[in-house]
Amino acid sequence: MKKQVFFTVIVVLCLVIVGSTAAQAKQLANVSSYRYYLDKETPQMMKKAKNLDMMVIEPLEMNKAAIKKMQKQGTLVFGYVNAMEVDCWNKAFYKKMQKEDFYYDKAKKKKYFKEWDSYLVNMTSKHYQELLIKEVQQQVIKKGLDGVFFDTVGNIDDFVPSKQQKAYRAGMVNVLKTLKKQQPKLLIGQNWGFDTLEKATAPYVDFIMWEDFNYTELQQDDWAQQQIKRLERIRQKEHVEVFVVSFKDKQKSEKLAKKHHFKFMYNPKGSYYNEWFDK
């Protein structure tokens, strides 16, 4: 009798978790307007944010009260976390890094990104995976955000040698699986990394972001056309939503995005998201 009761309780709990997660995923699928903003809150920003379905914010910069206010207004809030790079400006995180947490090329040199003042990381490092998981716990889960947005996942495809990519993807999947196990209702997004999405992360993420989604270049690029079809297949199979950011050709880019049921955002500053602007 006790075993039967225990089993019933477990089943009910599982149904509650699955139901809650499904409800959140449906809310993400219904997103029609979103913004990507990585600076402190401002009165102008807060006024505009109340009309948005979703926001990607920098949890190290934005006040917790502002985050709660946006959520109360019905906005899904995702916390930005750099996955495949360690930012030198984030000193609290950087000082926790160990030698094996960095990526090294054949000449045993680190890969430095001057534009962002950051270093490529070694996603196969168990220590780094633990650091990344703890960062999400501290900056996203404990602050009550709806999800985490992992930037630079695409670095696995772009900068890691092909022979090492499988191991790096396995490391990223381990991070995602651990977070989903700890926090089943946590929504997860990744930036770029279409190969990594298809080969590894699709079952564990809820959306992917495609930056620089510009009509003129896309129409003339066979690779881009293939990726559009690829993402449509992944969305149908794994229910991964596609969010795009256009830097130019606003009207035509938005029309193209809507044609494929992609979530659209326009950012004239390119991949710089520390300035709020009116559409």
UniProtKB/TrEMBL annotation:
The keyword Signal applies. Residues 1-25 form the signal peptide. Keywords: Signal. Pfam families: Glyco_hydro_114 (PF03537). InterPro entries: Aldolase_TIM, GH, GH114_TIM-barrel. Residues 36-254 form the Glycoside-hydrolase family GH114 TIM-barrel domain. This is Glycoside-hydrolase family GH114 TIM-barrel domain-containing protein. It comes from Brochothrix thermosphacta (Microbacterium thermosphactum).
